[in-house]
Amino acid sequence: MKPFAFERATRPEAAASLVADSTEAVYLAGGTNLVDLMKLGVTEPALLVDITGLPYDRIEHRADGGVLIGALVPGSELSGDRGIRERFPALAEALLAGASGQLRNRASTGGNLLQRTRCVYFQDVTKPCNKRSPGTGCSAIQGSHRDLAVIGTSDACVATNPSDMAVALAALDAVVHLRRVDGSSRAVPLADFYLLPGDTPHRETVLQPGDLITGVELPPPPPGATHYRKVRDRWSYAFAVVSLAAVAATDGGGALREIRLALGGVAPKPWRAYKAEQLLAGQRPTEDALRTAALAEFASARPLPQNAFKIGLAVDLITATVRDLVAGEGR
Amino acid sequence: MTTLERTVGAEVTRIEGHDKVTGTALYAYEYPVPDALYGVAVQSTIARGRVRSVDAGAALALPGVVAVLDSGSDGVPRLHPTDDPELSVLQSADVAYRGQIVAAVVADTYETACQAAAALRVTYEEEAYEVELRDGDPHIFVPDTVNAGYPGRTEKGDVDTALATAPVTIDATYTTPPEHTSAMEPHATIAVWDGDTLTLYNGDQGPWMTAGAIAALFGLPEGAVRVVADHVGGGFGSKAVPRPPTVLAALAARAVGRPVKVAVTRQQMFTMVSYRTPTVQRIRLGAERDGRLTAISHNALQQSSRLTPYCEQTVTATRMMYAAPHRRTIHRLSQLDVPTPSWMRAPGEAPGMFALESAMDELAYALDMDPIELRVANEPSVDPESGNAFSSRNLVACLREGAARFGWAGRDPRPGSRREGRWLVGTGVAAGNYPAITWPASATARAEPDGSFTVRIAAVDIGTGARTALTQVAADELGVALDRVTLEIGRSVYGSAPFAGGSMGTSSWGWAVSKGCRALAKRLDEVGGQVPPGGLEAHADTTEDVRARKDLARHAFGAQFAEVRVDADTGQVRVDRMLGMFAAGRIINARTARSQLRGGMCMGLSTALYENLELDPNFGDFANHDLASYHVAAHADVRDVEAHWIEEEDDQLSPIGAKGVGELGIVGAAAAIANAVHHATGVRVRDLPITLERVRTGLRR
């Protein structure tokens, strides 16, 4: 590990100015991903600015049913919050499906949004990776890519975003709150927060240097039922092969009046299946309709030999999860 | 002496358990050694070629860096060649695989050493390389002998004719991937030279044998190297012989004239300390309609590095499992530009029995016969190849008793016949075996005037419970309570003893402990039970005793049962329960033996569903090299795992009567799960691991 300086910020202004003064400074919250990457030499910051003392550690439930989650709220607290469990169960399910109890105790909400891909090449500094070292090439496309993305990828990068939480947030239309270096604030819908890799896979979000995530806002809960279902290779402590956060509500006639589908494990970002949602809106969620819509979502997919199975798996997962949600709606 | 209850067979808790859970038990890296420096290995980034240059400028400029070593450095000792070329660390600029040690940094802190290692600039002359195991490659050969001295090929009768004329045949190819031991304690060494003697604090399964191997390497007399391995955090074969990092520590300490500590990182383990070879196994079975086998053919292709033709004994279990007049078993080896594979829990039997026991299940379906009855119908009366009698063979008892406990009776064999909501449920069975091996060992037993006893043997407890079991053996022979006996193990200076491997520890070490304690008891009797002020001592060596044993087939057996459920939506597999029924001779400690057997079964579950080193054909190493990407079974994957055994007395083993349980538990477990997945879904997965995409290819939707 490269030696680094460490500063503890107690006020947002101080944190911002420390980071703004250095091109190699990064914020440190739980450190559950950042410190690993530093040990591996993937990230070599000159300065760590510890932001855990900043006042972004609360969950504020609002009268309209919405909620503002502080960026420093750890996953364990968020997943255990009664209001979250009652009104946003898919978020609690997603959090509990990720990492381990110990990691959830440390890992923050803002940090979770910014965790890096677990592509094995990104984490191995002896091999080319466009995301880690722009222009060096992608080792995964010709190499080990079974766990990587099938849609939204480019010739430069096929990495996935590993977060479970962000998938649930995508389905819940979350908004990310930022504090800019100049002290101004900005709200970015989660749907616009992440960038697709294109030719610049090292750029992953819309964050500008010095931007600090202060919180995540959830609008009032959607109608109907929500569920997060994660398909993984073992039953705990594994990233999603494919995961789905789904929201579904039907009208009196059995047609879908609300349908939201967000997928994990298939794309460089939490993937809102807008095309499938459009096809399903107002339709009866029959097996055929669900399959057709889900398949249509993947019309632009670019699967690789080892991960082509993810498309069929995602289609099955969407079909089964919406089927179960609608069947359970009346209960 | 007073008459005491014998402790052998009892559920004695681990003697060092308290030390371990309170953190006072010292592992290799934790020994307080003054003035120690830190060594960090630099690994090759090419698969084949030569190191052209090592630019140490930036590394040496860092404060605290003491030395940068490569094969051209003056201070690097010239080592004597041994039969393990992996140990010739920094002796040549040649690179045989990606991940081989090409240089090392020694510094005053671990962090500085890591930073300097990252700053080292190594250039190479790269050569074309071949890293993919491909059947049909012209360089593939049949070795004369394979690991542990078994023949590379055996043949009896006329297999081809028998297969051509058999009314029912199976011809299937099974593959297993490379796997890694991933012991909890990564390999670590502290090397301390004092003149021409060397002390190694080493994560080690065989302190005495390691001491000999390192002494030979450095051209030192026997006894000049002392190995200390008081506590070892797992090994599964990867610590049974010294690996390159241990040599690096010794060599670096010699070069810099100070003690050097080397800790292998988790990531480094995947190329530095061996792995289990991948296998491609073709099995052909011919049977009469009543299920009796007429022909068995098992052909296994495996890999090794260019350095050494290590060939695992994958087909040896097939040589003795079932009766059949016509039989052929062949190992084939492909030497590639890859790291050297070596021993991992039940090398040979674990992958080999996955293939054979999957094929037996396929045959049972082809015959419309219960898979247990099929195995019983092919029970041999003597070892089918050697004609030797079995010292004891209780496979049938394991199958019958296991079936009764598992609830096998009444099973509907039709695949896909049990559905619970979205889950497809199935059960499977497989047989297991592991040879009962005993090697010579030596031990010293000592009585003190205060009534206490000390027994010293260069055994090692890698988490198995060996220290506790040997204490029980000693206490029983001496006729005293457990708390009066101290077993001192883990040190090469205690004399010749085999490693903790081959499931032979309890039998081999136990025999020497027992013999030493008997000799001491006799001497005590001679002096009227009065221990003289200087104490009394007796030494035992079992070399002649082991040699004098009859020529018999000695094996432990097992029957593995599994119940799985498969998510019909996704193909995910969940193992609801496993039950193992074993025949392993006398069980010395029921608690630690059960733990060993269940641990083996869990590792078998892990093999069946998860473990998979992904060879990276573009680089020649394994793409996944940490525990986030190399999956082993975690808590949530393991539900109900039971291990039981039948009472088995076998007086043709050793006075201890134990067959060993370290490896038996993993053998057959993967096949039982694969067979259960087939029963649940109708999908026959012949390639491990049983990933959800492999299951999904056959699921009807």
Automatic annotation (TrEMBL), chain A:
It holds the Pfam family CO_deh_flav_C. One of its GO terms (molecular function) is oxidoreductase activity. Residues 1-223 form the FAD-binding PCMH-type domain. This is Oxidoreductase, molybdopterin-binding subunit. Keywords: Oxidoreductase. Gene3D superfamilies: 3.30.465.10, CO dehydrogenase flavoprotein, C-terminal domain, Uridine Diphospho-n-acetylenolpyruvylglucosamine Reductase, domain 2.
TrEMBL record, chain B:
It holds the Pfam family Ald_Xan_dh_C. Residues 22-128 form the Aldehyde oxidase/xanthine dehydrogenase a/b hammerhead domain. Keywords: Molybdenum, Oxidoreductase. The keyword Oxidoreductase applies. The keyword Oxidoreductase applies. It comes from the Bacteria. SUPFAM superfamilies: CO dehydrogenase molybdoprotein N-domain-like, Molybdenum cofactor-binding domain. GO terms for molecular function: iron ion binding; oxidoreductase activity. This is Xanthine dehydrogenase, molybdopterin binding domain protein. It comes from Streptomyces himastatinicus ATCC 53653.
